[in-house]
């Protein structure tokens, strides 16, 4: 870069592009060049633009590979492996490291006796696990098949919850199957009857344990059948071994072989109401200390019954309420037949009252990993998340769209990143069309309708009734 060049008193001279030039420290400090290159700008252009931008394309410098191939001669002691110094300013030779302090032989012997050999690596699967094949059995293809099957089931139970699906087949083998093999044993797919990893996965797919799907020509495990007999038997055996050993890691599906996967997050949706000033007398003491208090439907029903009782409006064992001026004027229009003195069923009157109140929705969100629940209050009713999949090119290209995640305090960029990582596909986040729209749309390549719906339930705890799916694929 030309910004670091120091112009000598005689000037830089003149040159054209591609002319060769040497690079050195200022003449008064060290005249020996340490690099050579070809100019990428002419002197005329340099005078017009000033010392800015790139000036030289480096071809050879000290101490590069070309220098190392020669006799490695140095022009002066100022050339060191770390840098080139001005003449006479080379750093002094580094002092030798200090001699270690002498340790008495008796103390050293005692220290060695106290040493203990400790394996600092990750704890392997216990060799006492009765379900684990012996390392001697892998000498035959059938024994290696049994070892691979055991490692696959162990990995699926202990290390692959549904929230981590889909997972690439190659990652499942390298990051799950190999690490769980019993200590002292080896796993070699070429020495098995499968011969190839793809055949092992295909075999278990035919047996109904795995669901495979190619995404961008890369095979992925998209689902695990937790109720499969082999999985259920393995989960029970591993759980029994863990119990005999006094605990251990809880597996991805060891809590119950046939039980559905549990959500890692939880969202509780509560519908609340706030009374306008005209209806506050109905709620009496409930709003005495806080006029803006939010009430549940049960609070509203109890307040309406108490108001009717106190005003003598209840009839037929409180199943009917006679309208007074406040209820008739606030809940019914002038053209309606109900008026002062008209008896109305208590359930119908409560429904009419709720319509006249201001509606709010409160979300109590427990994120993945636990922690204190987070509360989000929204005005009005909550809108459902909409997931749609459409065919973009005669069944060969699909696009999945997700809209409305902001209503559940979920960042669209976070959803996009998770989909992109788990499904190995491209995602984008864009504002929704329309001047009055404030939300964003997540678009992902591929037909991921069921996968995204399952992710929203498992990872974010979205109840099924708040997720709408619509497929436009042929």
Task: Label this structure with key terms.
474 residues, alpha+beta, Archaeosine Trna-guanine Transglycosylase, Chain: A, domain 4, MDM2, 4 domains, five-stranded mixed beta sheet, 13 helices, 28% helix, extended
Describe the protein's architecture and organization.
With 474 residues, the protein is α+β, with helices and mostly antiparallel strands. The protein folds into four domains: 2-69, Archaeosine Trna-guanine Transglycosylase, Chain: A, domain 4; 135-244, Arc Repressor Mutant, subunit A, CATH 1.10.10; 269-360, MDM2, CATH 1.10.245; 384-472, SUI1-like domain (Translation Initiation Factor Eif1, 2-Layer Sandwich), CATH 3.30.780. It contains 13 helices and 17 strands. It has helices spanning 43-49, 65-69, 105-113, 141-159, 169-177, 197-206, 229-244, 280-283, 297-310, 325-331, 346-356, 412-423, 449-458, and strands at residues 20-23, 35-39, 56-61, 167-168, 210-215, 218-224, 266-274, 314-315, 320-322, 343-345, 358-366, 374-379, 385-391, 398-403, 427-431, 440-445, 467-472. The strands form five sheets. The protein has a five-stranded mixed beta sheet, covered by helices on one side. Strand 5 (210-215) and strand 6 (218-224) form a beta hairpin. The longest helix has 19 residues, at 141-159. The model is unreliable at 116-128 and 253-263 (pLDDT under 50).
What is the topological layout?
Elements: E1 20-23, E2 35-39, H1 43-49, E3 56-61, H2 65-69, H3 105-113, H4 141-159, E4 167-168, H5 169-177, H6 197-206, E5 210-215, E6 218-224, H7 229-244, E7 266-274, H8 280-283, H9 297-310, E8 314-315, E9 320-322, H10 325-331, E10 343-345, H11 346-356, E11 358-366, E12 374-379, E13 385-391, E14 398-403, H12 412-423, E15 427-431, E16 440-445, H13 449-458, E17 467-472
Parallel strand pairs: 13-17
Antiparallel strand pairs: 1-2, 2-3, 4-6, 5-6, 7-11, 8-9, 9-10, 11-12, 13-14, 14-16, 15-16
